[in-house]
Every structure is written in C-alpha cells, then in structure tokens.
Amino acid sequence: MNPKSVLKGRGAQLNVPNRFFEFSHEIRDDFLEFCNKEGENPDKKKTQYLEVFPKTIVNKIKSPDVGMMYSMNAYQGCEHGCIYCYARNTHEYWGYSPGLDFERRILVKKDAPKLLEDFIKKKSWKAYPIVMSGNTDCYQPAEQIYKITKQCLEVFLKYKHPVGIITKNALILRDLDILKELAKYNLIIVSLSITSLSEKTRRILEPRTATIKRRLDTVKTLTDNNVPVNVMMAPIIPSINSHEILPLAKAASENGASSIGHTIVRLNGAIGEIFTDWIEKTMPDRANKVLHQIENCHGGNLNDSRYGARMRGEGKIAEQITNLVRLARQRYFKDIGMPKLNCDLHEPYKNGQLKLF
C-alpha cells in the first residue's frame, strides 16, 4: 500500500454507507478527473460544527456491563478520530456515516447546560452520578470553542451533584479550578484513557488526541490536586498494544492513578469494515494477524454483542490479557481504588441554594 494513499490526520480512511439509507454516495473517477481539471477539492477535509437542539441531555444506560447508569454527551461525533471507537455507529442515527463523517461532522448541543440544570432540578430526581462522555469525548477539540463541558461542570458544582468524566484530552486541565471544588465535596471522578506508551502507535490509532506524555502529566496534575483518576487501558488490541499492559499500568501508578480498567476491542456494526480498511492501509504487514487475533477473542468474529462477554472477550488471547491486567492491579494498585461519589448533598440545592428549613 502506498503511504501517500493514507489520509493523514484522520482515523477512518473512508465513509461507509449509512445502513439506514436506501441509497449510498459514491465518488466516481470521472468526477475526480473533473475536479482535478477544475482545480477543485472533491472532498471537504475541514471539520464542520453543526448545532443541534435535543429536548433532553441525560440518558439512562440500560446495558448491564457498561458500569454507569446515566450519561450525557455535549457533542455527537468526535474529532479525535480513534479508529476503534464504538460510538461511530451512533452517527448513523443522525444521518451520517460512521466513517469520516464521524470525525468531520461534529454535532454541538449548545443547550446542554440548561437541559442538564432542568433535569437535576426535577423533584422526582434522586442524585446519582452522571457520566460525561458516555459516548463521545466531552473534551474533544470542539470544547475549546464552545466550552459546553465547562458550563455543565459549573452546573454540577452549583447543585452539588456527582459527576464522572471520561476523556483522553489534556484540555480537562483548563477546568482544574472547578474540578478541585467538586473534589472537595467528593463529587468528581475522572477516567483518563491511555491506550499506549508509544507515540507512533498513538498517532495512527488516535490521530487527534493529546500526546501520551501530556496525558500522563494530566493524571499527575489531577491527582496532585486530589482529583481521583482511573486510567482506562481501553481498548486492548492484540498485537498492537496488548504487550504494553504492565508498563502502561506502571506508568499510570507512578503518576498517581488510583485504579486501572480495560476492555478488549470489539468491532461492532460498521466499525469492522472501517477498522479492516484502516489496518490494511496503515499496518499491512500485520493486518491479517491482528484481525485473526481479534476474531479469536470473539468466537471467530470481529464483534460479540453478548453482555458480559463483549468487552472482556473469550479464548486464550483474551484470557492472557485478563490475567495481565489482574497482575498489574496486584502489583501497582493493591489496596487502593476509586472513591464512591457523594450522592447526599444534592437534594437541598435543587432550588439553587441550601434550604434553611
């Protein structure tokens, strides 16, 4: 494969058809030739930010193996471009492709802070941790422009409501002052995703994310300021980052993380085609090996949708990965763990101020 054929700065290398559409879009050779003669670019590479106006922002999670009950997403689509991202398929619900569209057409929910405030002020609502980024990263590049995540954190602090954050972007440190205040009341936990210690791997696997050094520095800065951090080694991909489990856990521990978590890659829906195309272009020498080892973890398929098995995998390779993670926990995280968030403070603050009577 000619390296020039790889689309740099993006994870997906193509737009697969939307499964909900009867028709598909195809760029033909004669159109490409026309664009070349006219000096036009047939493919708009620039990221587009599109405002949307949902009626609600907090989602109840029904999947029993996700580890959260409520989540919210300020953005749909994610410019980070992680090739393995399970959230790609959700872009089809908005009428876009889970391929390049997922990275280049970012839907922005500017009303999220107001919707969040209305939700947690409901008389019927009993405080329970709401996780930001249950689907797409709340600190992706769009956050530098719109600051929706920061406004939502201010809402959580105002109403003393527990919140979790999942991110792989050092931009979270911009809001350190708010996170420190939330931590004083035991209202915040952060899960920082770090999938490799290799910058070469990071650049092709997660092309628009923060560097590994910046992420490790972010773990240290947060923990130095008493903000509890869990490092997510997710996903583990056989023969790409599976050999890094112990050194990655060691680095997380040395920078102050309280725990680690992991999942094994599963290429659900359209992601199987997107990932296969990507690895054949970026890692042609080991593409077959990686794909076959992923299949080994999921009963001969690239994906397993069964609750409980889908994120941990089965078979010898999955067992080896699980054992390595268990060993890492015993070696680097023995007798420590993430705190339980405080759900008892919120009720008196529903009207915006502490009730006196």
Summarize it.
It holds the Pfam family Radical_SAM. The chain is 33% helix and 12% strand.
Describe this structure in words.
With 357 residues, the protein is an alpha/beta fold. The chain has one domain (3-20, 45-334): Aldolase class I (TIM Barrel, Alpha-Beta Barrel), CATH 3.20.20. It has helices at 29-38, 100-104, 112-120, 142-146, 148-158, 176-184, 199-205, 212-224, 245-254, 271-282, 287-297, 316-332, and strands at 48-51, 58-60, 70-72, 75-76, 105-108, 130-132, 163-167, 188-193, 229-236, 259-264. The strands form two sheets. It has a seven-stranded mixed sheet. A three-stranded mixed sheet has the order 1-5-4. α6 links the parallel β7 and β8 (188-193). The N and C termini lie far apart (72 Å). The mean pLDDT is 90.
CATH topology: TIM Barrel
Please tell me the overall pLDDT: 90
What is the element string, with H for helices and E for strands? Answer: HEEEEHEHEHHEHEHHEHEHHH
Structural class: alpha/beta
Gyration radius, rounded = 21 Å
Q: Show unreliable segments.
A: none
- How many strands appear in the DSSP assignment? 10
Helix content: 25-40%
In CATH, the architecture is: Alpha-Beta Barrel
SSE map:
Blueprint: H1 29-38, E1 48-51, E2 58-60, E3 70-72, E4 75-76, H2 100-104, E5 105-108, H3 112-120, E6 130-132, H4 142-146, H5 148-158, E7 163-167, H6 176-184, E8 188-193, H7 199-205, H8 212-224, E9 229-236, H9 245-254, E10 259-264, H10 271-282, H11 287-297, H12 316-332
Parallel strand pairs: 1-5, 3-6, 6-7, 7-8, 8-9, 9-10
Antiparallel strand pairs: 2-3, 4-5
Helix pairs in contact: 3-5, 5-6, 9-12
